[in-house]
Specification:
40% helix, alpha+beta, elongated, three-stranded antiparallel beta sheet, 3 strands
Length: 63
């Protein structure tokens, strides 16, 4: 049986922490930044974790 390939689009967007959580960047920080307040842009810099159901799907896509 051949090896399962990694979904490269997923691999570029998410990261798995040492505890097994799946971390992603927040949406909304690409363009139209002049309209957004400083606080909002600063908070968009942070990473966020995926829900349990989504993290299972993402781990399966990476395996």
């Amino acid at each position: 049986m051949p090896k399962q390939k990694t979904r490269k689009g997923v691999a570029k967007r998410i990261r798995i922490t040492r505890t097994g959580k799946v971390v992603r960047g927040k949406a909304g920080r690409r363009h139209l930044l002049s309209n957004k307040r400083r606080k909002r842009k600063r908070q968009l810099r942070r990473k966020t974790t995926l829900t349990l159901a989504d993290s299972r799907r993402m781990k399966r896509a990476l395996a």
